[in-house]
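Memo to structure team: turn this sequence into structure tokens by end of day. - J.P.
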Amino acid sequence: QVQLVESGGGTVQPGGSLTLSCIASGFTVINSPMAWYRQAPGKERELVANIASIGTGTNYANAVKGRFTISRDNAKNTVNLQMNNLKPDDTAVYFCRRLYPDAWGQGTQVIVSS
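Reply from structure team:
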């Protein structure tokens, strides 16, 4: 059974950092295109970053370029999102997604507030 479980969310002050983790089961992340999305209150879900199934090719939303880093830990079968220099606009529920075949996690809340 395919399952994605996110963790690492929380409340942080502007300028702070958080690392989100997505633990996968039922498949191996090394062979799968993976992504992080987020959905802020009252807004549509949007792509934050994705990583290719082969190699380490990555893509980032303009709003997070230079601040966020997506990576895969094959030994732990996880996909991580390192988030630095967080801003209030980064406040959202963050979701892990396997792009193909499609699968979503339940999300983890990130709040950036002073």
